[in-house]
User: What shape does this take?
Amino acid sequence: MLARDWFYNERNRIGLDTAVASIYDHGEDADLRARSALKMLGLQSGWRIADIGCGNGVLATEAALMGAEVDAIDISPAMLALAEIYARDRKARVRTRSAGLLSFAYEPCSYDLIVSEFTLHHLPDFWKAVALARIHRALKPGASFYLRDIVYVSMPDGGERDVEQWADFHIKNHDFARDSVVAHMRDEYSTFGWVMERMLTDVGFVLVSADYHAPMHGTYLLRKPTPGEQS
Ligand SMILES: C[S@@+](CC[C@H](N)C(=O)[O-])C[C@H]1O[C@@H](n2cnc3c(N)ncnc32)[C@H](O)[C@@H]1O
Assistant: This one.
């Protein structure tokens, strides 16, 4: 899509995340969780992968330590600086890219795996679909996309309960301040799980699995069909 005067400015999130970067923490065992997710995804040494919205780079670093060629992409220079330090401390070769879901540069059909965790909700729904279509184009046929995000599982009449449970979960398990958790509801763009599934399949992915687990968390495993499957 060509840049237009109505194009969404994804960089308007930078200030917020720069403030968060200094306190941002994945919690204990984040490296082990990242490694087990990458094993589940069948990561092979030599694969070309991208982590979009890489944050402080734990998953990108684990992928590099497992032998992948990794692009760690984030809109926030502060987050990328943390990712670089994290990777360097572990002697992992990670290539950081200062770009967003709507702007990362890619060769069509070039990645073996793309991961994006807790980042897509920064975009309003139309722009989520634009980002998902870009990710679809960037993947090789048959390759996987692993998406995790904060999504609504129930309709608004159950929403109050879900949001409170979700806020309590993050305050208890991740030590987040309530204000930083509720800012997500006020200022960001989570959508319904069923909207996410429809967007993913409409841009061409095969939905391998959709899992709704911790309060308001959705995990999706997608595959880009091969040309033979499409016909
Ligand atoms: C909640 S953090 C998640 C970080 C990491 N993926 C994780 O799961 O721990 C969201 C990340 O998305 C980044 N971000 C926000 N908007 C973005 C965009 N449009 N494109 C790429 N990254 C974005 C933020 O800078 C931040 O690092």
